[in-house]
Design a protein that fits this description.
Length: about 120
């Protein structure tokens, strides 16, 4: 009888302790949402324009480009008036010529506008 009681106690202990464990803290704690990163011209926008636009939209526009996008104010004005994003999203006459920028890149520019055009 004593052996049965000890065996029953051990069996119940194993069941109790294995059912009440967690495999990671993620199971118990919901991590806080990451703070959204504000987009700035110098960090996020200027590299996009340097890599994708400045060839035609440099200080002196070439290849029929109507305007320069080589400064913060010129890019800001183009995004504010809608001209830049309209051309970047245009499937018939896209900017840059030949193919649209990835949606994720355009989203960065849109977020920069939403964040208040931080320099």
């Amino acid at each position: 009888m004593k052996k049965t009681a000890v065996l029953l106690f051990v069996l119940l202990s194993i069941i109790l302790f294995t059912n009440c464990e967690n495999h990671s803290e993620d199971d118990l704690i919901t991590p806080p949402s990451p703070e959204p990163t504000l987009k700035t011209y110098n960090t996020d926008i200027k590299p996009i324009f340097t890599n994708s636009c400045i060839v035609c939209h440099g200080k002196t526009p070439i290849n029929g480009a109507p305007s320069s996008f080589d400064t913060y104010m010129l890019v800001k004005n183009g995004v504010e008036n809608g001209a830049i994003l309209a051309r970047m999203n245009d499937n018939v006459n896209p900017m840059p010529p030949g193919s649209n920028l990835p949606a994720s890149t355009i989203a960065i520019i849109e977020q920069w506008a939403s964040d208040g055009y931080l320099e």
